[in-house]
Amino acid sequence: MRKKNYFAGPSVLPMEVLQEMRDQLVDYEGNGISMLETSHRGGMFEKMYDDCLSTFRELIHIPEDYDVYFLGGGATLQFAMIPFNFLLPGTKAAYCKTGTWANKACNDAQKIGDVAVIFDDKENNYTHLPDVDKLVIPENCSYLYLCANETIGGIEYKKFPKRDKTPIIADMSSDFMSRPVDVSNFDMIYGGVQKNLGPAGATFIIMKKSMLDRRNKNLVAYLDYALHAKEKGLYNTPPVAAIWGVKLMFDWIKKMGGVEAMDKRAELKSSMIYNIIDSSDFWRSPVDPAVRSRMNIVFRLPSEELEAKFVEESKKEGMLGLKGHRSVGGLRASLYNACPVEDVEALAAFMKEFERKNG
Amino acid sequence: MRKKNYFAGPSVLPMEVLQEMRDQLVDYEGNGISMLETSHRGGMFEKMYDDCLSTFRELIHIPEDYDVYFLGGGATLQFAMIPFNFLLPGTKAAYCKTGTWANKACNDAQKIGDVAVIFDDKENNYTHLPDVDKLVIPENCSYLYLCANETIGGIEYKKFPKRDKTPIIADMSSDFMSRPVDVSNFDMIYGGVQKNLGPAGATFIIMKKSMLDRRNKNLVAYLDYALHAKEKGLYNTPPVAAIWGVKLMFDWIKKMGGVEAMDKRAELKSSMIYNIIDSSDFWRSPVDPAVRSRMNIVFRLPSEELEAKFVEESKKEGMLGLKGHRSVGGLRASLYNACPVEDVEALAAFMKEFERKNG
Fold first, then answer.
1. What pLDDT does B111 receive?
2. Residues forming CATH 3.40.640.10 domain(s) in chain A
3. Which of A241, B248, B287, B333 is deepest in the core (most CB within 10 A)?
4. Is A224 marked active-site?
5. Could you say which of B171, B187, B251, B343 is catalytic?
6. What architecture (CATH level 2) is domain A15-254?
7. How confident is the prediction for chain A on average, in pLDDT?
8. Could you tell me if A107 lies within 8 Å of chain B, comparing CB atoms?
9. Residue B47, φ and ψ in degrees, nearest 5
10. Chain B within 8 Å of A137 (Cβ-Cβ)?
11. All CATH 3.90.1150.10 domain ranges in chain A, comma separated
């Protein structure tokens, strides 16, 4: 029987996507060859890739003056590539430290150049986000960096800083395409695909072309965005299997009604769980209610013993991935795009029953 | 009908591997979840990954004091990571420029530190390899770098330099596991998996643990081999789909008789084609006969018109990927591990018939 999958990433894929991959795996669309063994310089891959990028642009309304492509190495490699390219000598980069992912990006930037930490919620153990209208960006700032959704902390920006003269770069690994985003407000949006957009192994890059003019020159090949932009991500061999999965996921999102439909689903699904959390003192949300993530719902029970029992009993019900990240403890349900509404209903029912028995 | 696949990479996979991926894709071994949607911190992935690494060690006899794992970003990212980690201030790195891939690695190293080019076959358009017994390694050298097989030039080291005090680092992307290799002669062997070992998206790293003690410190996270070694490649989310394919490919190589059997197959398959090339003046091999690659057989016909005709007619016979790389022209047949003997027999028959009609 199919498990209910609440993993924080890699994470659940739609059954239709898995079945399509299965059906086309040995012989892709009657071409007599698998997508996994064709040349990335060959027509079969190129057509699939062009379709993928074209649906990508359509779904999230990427303007013409933005490049879009995929790289390898995960978001973690981007933590380094961003300052290597854009943290110019004699300038600062402004970082908002909001949890594990933003902080890792900030650590890498500090190894490369001058960083201004303009928000750091360490004292609250990263449970709040900045008031974006009050952020003070330093003079001569190369870019402002933020992480849209922190999977471990379970917090998500509900509003983004408005771009003026300072470029904004955002890691949207864990909530991209779960809600509409005005791409033109950002100079770069990127993310690992393995949460909302497909199987692990690819990182999407959306970048305003003009950013390439203000990058550091003479970088080594793989770290240079200009090389990748020029070749649409095919400067070297791309992660074909992951990109194929993303292409099918984009088709699925489109068929489901696009990003607007994903937005409604995310609201519906996360409300089901937050409503339970808010319904009694048995449950507790450790984060600022104003910035609760719709993707990663972090919650606590009255004791660690009860939390362990919750995880154990949920597994018996075929529910995977409900244990919180080891660095913060507690419980976490990740409800990405592909997580079926029925699986969230099942989780809600399980939670109510668990409270009835143990509350 | 299944095509005959001579692509230079990504390249042919065994039908058994494709079928196994297909059969397990939706529900991996009855776990109720796909390998593509499970957490890389979860037991199902970890068991597969441990099996993969363990078969890897067994197949190519990796000593205990070597780490082995996978990264993303392809061999191209390694061109940069190697000098970032190992080209120490006040030392040189020695590079053998033997074609497209070694030269790209050398270019990146020159952006990072001091490089001694100890062999460069530019005047012969990269058709020869150095006599490894005559290489002169500079004093105070951090490492000697070479590319074992050049896919575009079609040349392959038949013998490697013997390690003394200078560590040897080798890119074996395109001929790894096609022949036995004494891993202990190298301090690092790495490569993209998409030629001999699986679908595109992962890069294997084999590294003597002691190399980590002599690396540059304070590197950004993803570029630091020590972080990856410590987490066996799971510092961040790995390219799961590609690794799963590699695991199945390792199982297949083992079932076929291991690297020793691959070696015999490579000799058999490449001889079939080289014998034809040597049989008449209709065919011409542009490379030093002593270092002809068994993986990528580069050959020419009396005219470019005939070469175009060869490609066109081969396609009609269901044969893909026989056009030479655009940078050198001509023809190329890539005969990696998974390429069936029957497909090489079919190519040989096609070549003979083509010569009969056009010779």
1. 98
2. 15-254
3. A241
4. no
5. B171
6. 3-Layer(aba) Sandwich (3.40)
7. 97
8. yes
9. -65, -45
10. no
11. 259-358
